[in-house]
Design a protein that fits this description.
With 596 residues, this protein is α+β, with helices and mostly antiparallel strands. It contains 17 helices and 24 strands. The strands form seven sheets. Strands 16, 17, 18, 21, 22, 23 and 24 form a seven-stranded mixed beta sheet that branches. Strands 6, 9, 11, 12, 13 and 14 form a six-stranded mixed beta sheet that branches. Helix 5 packs across helix 11 (479-491), helix 12 (508-522) packs parallel to helix 14 (541-559) and helix 16 packs across helix 17. It starts with a strand and ends with a helix.
């Protein structure tokens, strides 16, 4: 038995003869690269090798660092003294590209997803984008990997990822300097595929993005698998070794499958549902003349509900409407006059041309219900006195809506369940149905805004948001846009911006104040500059952004400008500005004209 010594710890391990496949060995050195820069015109270059081999580039055409390969034994395992803090570039890339275990190089996919490890406190799972340069591990070698890797501890963070798309590479950029061709860029983090620097990048590690995952304990993970044991003294490449993907699920694993998959933000949940409904539909339906592909009984969880906007060019999310609808809900309104201005198509769902029915969720939640008090008020009082209560349910759908078969506006929202736990307000949303392409994004935006508003009224921090759907469907007439959205997501790195926290002094009077300005802009009675909004309205900067959106929309609708006020557009947060320039040509023109 051998003692493993690292700068991190000294441990005696029963599997000390195992050396992870990706670890670089003594004698494996950087190989001659014979690099050169080929001019492409307009001051651009492409990095290459004079004796380039197809293996020198990955599937996206990025040039990779060369490293010699040491001898292998008769089982196909590398030999030589391990260099524990170094991963061999070619073996790291191969394991990341094919999702193979970094220890044994066998397929790492399990029935529950791929297992990725990270050191404690090195990754914040609430961040919108989580990246890793560590190849996955199979369940059998999760514990050995944690104990052997000097960057981990015996209790690492364990990400069980259902989705882990390619993101980019770690590397350095080459160009011409005072010493001729030399390293001219050392990026602080990974370079995403599609970045303008990639033609001159010399890559050393491949990086994946963890899109859909849940955090589990290592002991829970390792203790739950029923795959046959492999002797740690042998390199597990033999044909007789059992693949983890063929293992039987234990009751512990089956229980894990019953919880909603977790996503860092709405974008990844939205894309996963589109992929599921379009590629693997359970049913083809044609309800009320709307042919669609459908999946029954799906759910997801957002660990950061503030990441409520998707930054996708092809989807062209409309933040003006989304804020307007959220405020319309929070004000308890049902009038068509306000919401119809931002979404004219909603007029077709009104039975009397004046009001909306079931889809006016805010009227049901925040309108008078009992002795002049709203359902929201009653639930908020309950939860203030009974913080562990399970009764904080806000029903919306009513059976009365089905009495009239010709009713054009039946609520899709069944109800919202508020659950204060450990100082956080969690919320579970129950939908009877969701149009995944059109309705889902607006619903999640508004409902998470309601959740955050409720958390402030109760003096709690924002918790998780769980969204459950009875009928999750994509209508056939939206199939082409859905295809473009999925193609865009698969072809390049994700775009993401942080979303600010709602001010802690937000109250019903805040909503009333905002809607005074909203009405003045909607009816074209007033027009605002960025400076006026920032200095004269008495609003928190968070809500100033909303008024700026309404003023930009006023310019588009009432003034019908070719280009909006560039100063106003510039005053928007970067994420909102990104969305507005992709949604409205008049906003894009303000940038294209050189104003920004």
């Amino acid at each position: 038995m051998t003692t493993i010594r690292t700068t991190r710890k000294t441990t005696v391990l029963p599997y000390s003869r195992i050396v992870p496949f990706v670890i670089q060995r003594e004698g494996e050195e950087a190989a001659p690269d014979n690099m050169r820069l080929t001019p492409l015109g307009s001051g651009r270059y492409r990095l290459g090798c004079a004796d380039e081999d197809p293996r020198d580039r990955d599937l996206r055409g990025v040039l990779w660092a060369r490293c010699s390969l040491g001898p292998f034994d008769d089982l196909g395992r590398p030999t030589g003294r391990p260099q524990w803090r170094m991963m061999h570039p070619l073996r790291q890339r191969g394991c990341m590209q094919a999702l193979r275990c970094q220890v044994c190089a066998e397929p790492a996919r399990t029935p529950l997803g791929s297992i990725f490890l990270a050191g404690p406190d090195t990754v914040d799972p609430a961040q919108p984008v989580i990246l890793t340069n560590q190849p996955p591990v199979c369940a059998q070698h999760a514990r050995p990997a944690a104990d052997l890797c000097p960057h981990l501890t015996p209790d690492p963070m364990v990400f069980l990822a259902q989705s882990a798309p390619m993101y980019g590479v770690n590397g350095v950029g080459y160009g011409y300097g005072k010493h001729g061709m030399q390293v001219v860029q050392r990026p602080d983090g990974p370079i995403p595929y599609g970045h303008k620097l990639l033609p001159t990048i010399f890559a050393s590690q491949m990086v994946r993005r963890l899109g859909s995952f849940r955090l589990v304990g290592l002991d829970q993970l390792c203790g739950s698998w029923s795959a046959p044991h492999r002797s740690p003294a042998r390199w597990p490449h033999d044909a007789g070794s059992a693949a983890i993907g063929q293992a039987q699920l234990t009751p512990c694993q089956e229980s894990a499958l019953l919880t909603a998959p977790t996503f860092p933000g709405v974008r990844d949940a939205y894309l996963s549902l589109l992929q599921l409904a379009t590629k693997e539909p359970e049913h083809r339906i044609d309800a009320r003349g709307n042919a669609a592909r459908e999946v029954i009984g799906v759910s997801f969880r957002l660990n950061n509900p503030r990441q409520r906007l998707p930054y996708l060019v092809e989807r062209k999310a409309n933040p003006v409407f989304q804020f307007a609808e959220a405020l319309w809900y929070l004000a308890g309104r049902r009038d068509l006059e306000m919401i119809g201005y931002y979404a004219p198509s909603m007029r077709s769902y009104s039975a009397d041309g004046i009001h909306l029915g079931g889809s006016a969720y805010g009227h049901t939640l925040f309108g008078p219900a009992h002795e002049g008090r709203s359902r929201f008020d009653l639930v908020a009082e309950l939860l203030s006195n009974e913080p562990d209560s399970k009764r904080g349910y806000l029903p919306v759908f009513s059976p009365v809506e089905l009495a009239d078969r010709s009713n054009p506006d039946v609520a899709c929202l069944a109800g919202l369940h508020l659950l204060p736990r450990d100082g956080h307000l969690h919320m579970v949303c129950n939908m009877r149905a969701n149009d995944l392409d059109c309705g889902l994004l607006s619903d999640v935006f508004s409902f998470t805004m309601i959740q955050e508003y409720a958390a402030i009224q109760l003096g709690l921090r924002l918790g998780t948001y769980t969204h459950t759907i009875g009928s999750a469907h994509v209508n056939d007439h939206n199939a082409e846009r859905v295809r473009r959205v999925l193609d865009e997501a698969a072809s390049g790195p994700a775009v993401s911006f942080p979303f600010a926290a709602m001010p802690l002094d937000t109250a019903s009077t805040t909503i009333e104040h905002l809607l005074v300005h909203e009405e003045a802009l909607r009816t074209n009675e007033l027009r605002y500059t960025a400076q006026h909004i920032q200095t004269r309205l008495g609003l928190h900067p968070y809500w100033q952004q909303v008024v700026m959106l309404f003023e930009l929309y006023r310019q588009i609708q009432h003034d019908q400008v070719d280009a909006v006020d560039p100063a106003l557009l510039h005053a928007l947060d970067p994420g909102l500005r990104w969305l507005m320039t992709r949604k409205w040509p008049a906003c894009a023109a303000a940038i294209d004209g050189g104003a920004l």
